[in-house]
Write a structure and sequence with these properties.
Elements lengths: L2 E4 L10 E6 L4 H5 L1 H11 L3 E7 L13 E5 L8 H15 L4 E4 L4 H12 L3 E4 L4 H8 L10 H7 L6 E4 L10 H14 L6 E5 L11 H14 L3 E4 L4 H11 L5 E3 L6 H9 L3 E5 L2 H8 L4 E4 L19 E2 L25 H4 L3 H10 L12
Parallel strand pairs: 2-3, 2-5, 3-4, 5-6, 8-9, 8-11, 9-10, 11-12, 12-13
Antiparallel strand pairs: 1-7
Helix pairs in contact: 3-4, 7-10, 8-13
């Protein structure tokens, strides 16, 4: 990716800078901050960054020099407005920050921004491009909007910093996570057979493949290739469903609910191929350097949530020419306006399997299916 250089003044080039960055959720959006923060730190030796985020996301930021994580427990310690005031006090006493960078742009960060601004610290906040995105989903325009990575980077424009996108893998995992993932591999795939990860869920239904399609694709992969399939998901309902699905196949294993986030990422990194929805798993596998096939329904890569450094052919979707209502949502919320969920229903397992073959992403296709 291209090198960026934003220059406002010369005064900041020769002094140390400590930035405070906010991004509390959601998982995919937090993960997308990693290449921006890492690229800035690699390119600016006198820069230190503290990111304030939820404790669960800490493994994203391991092994990045001069990147600190401040864990924000909003369920207990920093709950409600009193908790938010406490968070401000704790952050203010943590270090002498030169600038606050808000990559979230919500009410909670807005209050924090105001408090820091009143205390004399300059603040920059993200422009989410809501007007552009609204025009896109209403069909008024159809063009590739600025990526979220670029929107994050733009928030740093008030500073004199150099930047270059880091190569994959961007997320560097601890050995403990790698060892736990390898132990799981040893139990399920000791022969080092080609491993395919499948993450068939998303937070919202308009970004989720039909369950019957997941079952059919697993059957096709098991019958027509030599691959071992690993199912990824989270939450009690997904854990139960993926466990039930995997029980019906010889070379399909559900890891849902079995590993910590760090160990789960280490397992994803051991996949030769990941098949995901437009979801956090898409971002994680891409940032971990894994070939990632993403299936897009009501959303669209043009909105700005493309996977990091993945080839455009790996985005599976029904074209705008075939289905003019796409995209109809930014994040996947809402209901299908047509009523038939065509954007996902038309993306059949056979079409996905055939495209995987054309892209030469599958192992040892059986002769009868060549």
């Amino acid at each position: 990716m291209k090198k960026n250089h934003t220059k406002i003044t010369d005064s900041s080039q020769n002094k140390s800078i400590h930035l405070l960055v906010f991004r509390f959720s959601s998982m995919g959006d937090v993960a997308m901050t990693v290449p921006i923060l890492k690229g800035l730190l690699i390119s600016n030796s006198k820069l230190t960054i503290t990111i304030a985020t939820r404790p669960f996301y800490t493994p994203f930021f391991d092994n990045i020099p001069r990147l600190n994580v401040f864990q924000c427990d909003f369920r207990n310690k920093y709950k409600g407005l009193p908790g938010l005031l406490k968070l401000f006090v704790d952050l203010k006493s943590l270090a002498s920050f030169d600038h606050v960078i808000d990559l979230h742009g919500v009410l909670r960060t807005g209050i924090l921004n105001l408090l820091f601004s009143l205390s004399g610290i300059s603040v920059s906040s993200i422009d989410k491009g809501r007007t552009e995105k609204k025009k896109l989903i209403k069909g008024h325009t159809f063009k590739n909007l600025k990526s979220t990575f670029q929107r994050y980077l733009d928030v740093f424009n008030a500073l004199n910093l150099e930047f270059e996108y880091p190569p994959v893998p961007v997320i560097i995992l601890n050995e403990t996570f790698k060892n736990e993932a390898q132990s799981f591999i040893n139990k399920t795939n000791p022969g080092e057979i080609f491993r395919i990860g499948l993450a068939p869920f998303s937070l919202h239904k308009l970004k989720t493949w039909p369950e019957s399609y997941t079952l059919e694709l697993i059957k096709m992969l098991e019958e027509r290739t030599s691959a071992t399939i690993y199912l990824f998901g989270g939450g009690a309902e997904e854990v139960s469903l993926l466990t039930r699905i995997s029980a019906n196949y010889k070379r399909c294993f559900s890891m849902a609910g079995k590993l910590s986030l760090g160990s789960e990422m280490a397992l994803i990194q051991r996949m030769q191929l990941m098949i995901t929805m437009d979801s956090s798993n898409m971002h994680l596998s891409s940032l971990l350097g894994v070939k990632t096939i993403s299936i897009w329904g009501a959303t669209h890569p043009f909105i700005g949530f493309q996977a990091y450094q993945q080839e455009i052919d790996r985005d599976f979707q029904i074209s705008k020419e075939e289905l003019s209502c796409r995209p109809c949502t930014v994040f996947g919320k809402g209901n299908c306006r047509r009523g038939d969920f065509a954007c996902m229903v038309w993306l059949t397992p056979q079409l996905v399997f055939d495209k995987l073959k054309r892209l030469n992403l599958l192992p040892s296709i059986n002769s009868f299916d060549s």
